[in-house]
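Lab notebook, page 48
Experiment: co-folding of the full assembly
Goal: obtain a model of how the components sit together before planning crosslinking
Operator: M.T.
Materials (sequences as entered):
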Amino acid sequence: MDARDELSLVFQALADPTRRAMLSHLRDGAATVGELAEPFEISRPAISQHLKVLERAGLIERTATAQWRTCTLRTEPLDAASDWVERHRDEWNERFDLLDRRLRDLKGTTDA
Amino acid sequence: MDARDELSLVFQALADPTRRAMLSHLRDGAATVGELAEPFEISRPAISQHLKVLERAGLIERTATAQWRTCTLRTEPLDAASDWVERHRDEWNERFDLLDRRLRDLKGTTDA
DNA sequence: TCATTAATTAAGGAGTTGCTAACATAGTGG
DNA sequence: CCACTATGTTAGCAACTCCTTAATTAATGA
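Observation: model returned without errors.
Model output:
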């Protein structure tokens, strides 16, 4: 993966439990890298890389204040991901509903 | 990635334009591997591997009829993914609303 | 039986991920 | 200036991704 499309980058970023946990943490407000790293038993470089993936996907923003990097969540990419999933899920469910109605109609005419 | 959790497998499966296009195709009804492969310029084995990823994530089901493998979409995993995204997006938006209200309140008291 | 069609498995290569240890950078405060 | 704290970068490695070509399995039909 390199110059992948935005949606792929977002889904890719979400495809890791550690990164999802980080986003969950950020849901409760901005946090420094140290705070985000604290619950995990992995090294700081590993944390840095996870943050880089999240940043590349546009899911977080990092601002430097003194020697602390504060991370904040951004929701726009989540919106894009959400839209895709919802759209597909909904349209498929519509198909099921349609099928369901058709089956019911068929049963109705057969029974009548 | 190997014995990853379900949610990671789903997001991982969605993190590829070819696979998302395949799912979009399947939204319009079941299809054989050949039909799914048709819009792409990649080899059949590559298609097979993409389908394997989708199957591992529980997003499709394959049934063999004669020499054709019919693929059908499954939405349960999409529901799980959707839930995660929605939950996070919503709670974050709530936070923004709260912040917004506070700022407005603050402004109100300052103005008064 | 043999050729054809549909799809998968096998083997391998280029590039990426996710981790580690070691080193570098940058700001704070004695 | 020097030690300390917070974070990032580099180098290296095992595992995985996504693709390929070649061989294989499985069903159809002359």
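Interpretation: Helices of chain B lie at 6-14, 17-27, 33-37, 44-56, 76-111.
Next step: discuss with group before ordering constructs.
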